[in-house]
Design goal:
mainly alpha
Length: 197
């Protein structure tokens, strides 16, 4: 590929493709330089180094993920919104394993200041959970529960970690039902009760 027209956007887009093809650990400046047919040094006009590249990739992938979730949850509330949110999360994780892995890294604070991606992620996630009547600090606790459950399930599923005869989709559906019941009967620290929805 010609060097002409190289930009930060094209570099990050190529990194996203590389992540899915070679795994997140395979995203290196050298691999991208080979892809574009340039020397490693040429990429430093567009990214500050490997950490910067991976941080930008994380934000790019996070934006794709929350866009998918936003479409899925639009017009839904309660259990229906939770199931749509979870389904969109899982499908992205399984379809784009390298990009999804990027969303799990800790990002340099200089990249996330005023990040529209992170702001939108918080708005949609917390908005869905407010439908269960939760307020802080329970909102943060609930976000951590959902993220841990979704990530753990997807990581095990993608690694072939579920060996029992039970259908994986059936177990996923049961997990979402259990999460819904937990959220609807949350042991609120903030003092506000929740109602089953």
């Amino acid at each position: 590929m010609a060097r002409a027209g190289l930009s930060a956007e094209r570099v990050i887009a190529a990194a996203a493709e590389l992540a899915d093809d070679a795994g997140f650990d395979g995203v290196t400046l050298s691999a991208l330089a080979r892809h574009f047919g340039v020397k490693d040094a040429s990429l430093y006009s567009h990214v500050r180094g490997l950490d910067d590249l991976r941080g930008r990739l994380a934000l790019h992938a996070g934006g794709e993920l929350i866009n998918r979730i936003a479409v899925a949850v639009a017009g839904r509330a309660g259990k229906e919104a939770l199931a749509a949110f979870a389904g969109a999360y899982r499908s992205y994780a399984l379809e784009h394993p390298g990009r999804y892995a990027a969303t799990q890294i800790r990002i340099d604070q200089s990249l996330i200041v005023d990040s529209p991606t992170l702001r939108r992620t918080a708005e949609i996630t917390y908005g869905m959970l407010r439908g269960y009547g939760l307020r802080e600090p329970d909102l943060t606790d609930a976000v951590r529960l959902l993220r841990s459950t979704f990530h753990g399930y997807c990581a095990l599923e993608s690694a072939g970690g579920f060996g029992a005869d039970r259908d994986v989709q059936a177990s996923w559906d049961k997990a979402i039902e259990a999460l819904h019941l937990t959220l609807a009967h949350w042991p609120c620290e903030s003092g506000a009760g929740t109602e089953t929805r």
